Amino acid sequence: MDAADAGALHAGNADDARGTGFVIDTLWSAIHAVESTDGYEACVRRAIGFGHDTDTTACVAGGIAGMRYGVQGIPGRWREGLRGREMVEPLRERLLARYTER
């Protein structure tokens, strides 16, 4: 996606956020969810609230919100309830170390 595409996507109407799972709609809906809320949980809940393909929209929105708010922005009760967390946590730590040392 080039800058013009990103600008067109960002300039969309908030009423167009539908969460259908179509690539452009998913991106627009996810960006809208991030920009219209003030925290990770609110963002994911907003994305789910669009309906339709909720898992796709919430996944993309959660990824973007994760970059904005960091792991500390994800509610502790959500992180603590994840199965396999003990396997994922070391990977997360290695990825953070690798890509934040630059």
TrEMBL record:
Cofactor note: Binds 2 magnesium ions per subunit.
Molecular function via GO: hydrolase activity; metal ion binding
Swiss-Prot/TrEMBL cofactor(s): Mg(2+)
Domain of life of the source: Bacteria
Keywords noted in UniProt: Hydrolase, Magnesium, Metal-binding
UniProt xrefs under InterPro entries: ADP-ribosylglycohydrolase (IPR050792), Ribosyl_crysJ1 (IPR005502), Ribosyl_crysJ1_sf (IPR036705)
Binding site for Mg(2+): 53, 55-56
Family: Belongs to the ADP-ribosylglycohydrolase family.
Protein name (record): ADP-ribosylglycohydrolase
Originating organism: Arenimonas composti TR7-09 = DSM 18010
Upper lineage: Bacteria, Pseudomonadati, Pseudomonadota, Gammaproteobacteria, Lysobacterales
